[in-house]
Task: structure prediction
Amino acid sequence: MTLQRVKGIPVALEGDRAVAEAMRQMNPDVVAAYPITPQTEVVMRFSDFVASGKVDTEFIPVESEHASMSACIGAAAAGGRVQTASSGAGIALMWEVLWVASGSRLPIVMHVVNRSLSAPLNIHCDHSDSMGMRDAGWVQLYDEDVQEAYDNAIQCVRIAEHPDVLLPTIHALDGFILGHSVERLELLPDEAVRDFIGTYTPAYPLLDVEHPVNYGPMDLQDYFFEHKRQQAEGMVNALDVVAQVSAEYGELSGRPHGLLEEYKMDDADYVAVLLGSTVGTAKTAVDELRQRGVKAGVLKVRCFRPFPAEAVAKALGGRKAIAVLDRSISFGAQVNPLCLEVISALYTHGYAPRVINFVYGMGGRDTVPAQIIDIFEEIMRIDREGEAGPPLRFFGVRE
Amino acid sequence: MARKPVDMISISSLPNLKSWRDIPIGGVITDVGNSVEYETGGWRSFRPIWDWERCVDCKVCWAYCPDGSIKLRDGRVAGIDLHHCKGCGICAAECPHGAIKMIEETKAQAEDKAKT
Result:
């Protein structure tokens, strides 16, 4: 089915408000949330829509994030279309129930506004929160800009609710950098969003009293493993579903976001791989390097869970040197979450280019195009001199 | 004679258990009321003994039993379902007429054995 392209409505909004607008247009059955910087404005704006009758969502203000995710689980098991939003410590407090949501195969959508994890206390952006939940069985998309935060928010619902997936899904936007920054974007008309997400038919709604079911029973040595195997299959299936939903959304909006985006990659010898808002910074750096005659490119990872390993390997195999930029630290790991995936993808597909992992931007430390150029110059030097040095570098920190 | 370790059978290959492809997702149970099939009587360390001569059929035990293990027949108490009773002793504690007492399961089993 080909969707008719609709005319967008240009607006200027902060990332948080753009997400709240998407939520208004989607009109979920239930939203249960607890405020935390820098997500607060998402829920604050959305609760305005509830109070003014612009949505007919049941809004549940709860006492903590453990409670918000628990309320979401109950509402989703009942058969509702359910959403929430959180950041940093809020997601950490949800940790136990994040697994209950995915293990119970409840297609909850969470809008994540990335924030670092304490201590020391910091409210600004890094990816410790969403990378901390990367094994919890949630599909994960990362937003490059406010437009994509809006677009991904809408697509999450279709991905999560797809019968081959039925997994909770997040999209993550960088706190403050996107969350609190005004950018120009185009909204879809309300009815286009409604038609795109369609109606939701839950698989096993508790409110269907004609077909009673039991959620969350004890599951021991005889069947627990089979249920985890099913969950792994749902995540495998999500790869095609993300691609398909993104293609349909592209037809509707004129903005086809893939699993990956290859920027000036055709002939690139040197590539930066990253996700989130710094992708835009890296594109600016690559434009500058191209003017200097350097064959540089950017590989943006939009879909991190499931990880599109084959596509990543194909995009990166045969390059001279690769810099993978991580905005979180897996303490004690050889390299950090994104780089681990990239190296695994390359190795399992028979490629062995030079890969260096750069940790950047922890706690909202700013990262500017000149620094990305420094990173490219470092991997060019390594390629030229053949001396790699340590595979893990902390970049933009005072030594 | 002890079985050799290489001959041991894993639970993954038991023929009466289903594949992950053949069960509802998420651990959801769709055939309701199947707790009857799960006999929890083996968990019991104390057994309730019902004295029908003291019982006045008030059914307080039936109302309090968390496992539905008080049997009724024609609206009257008819004994205890020992296949499901976990031996919690709530019935004995709540009975207003002292018609249920708890004895150690091992002793009850020894008595059963002596009778047969």
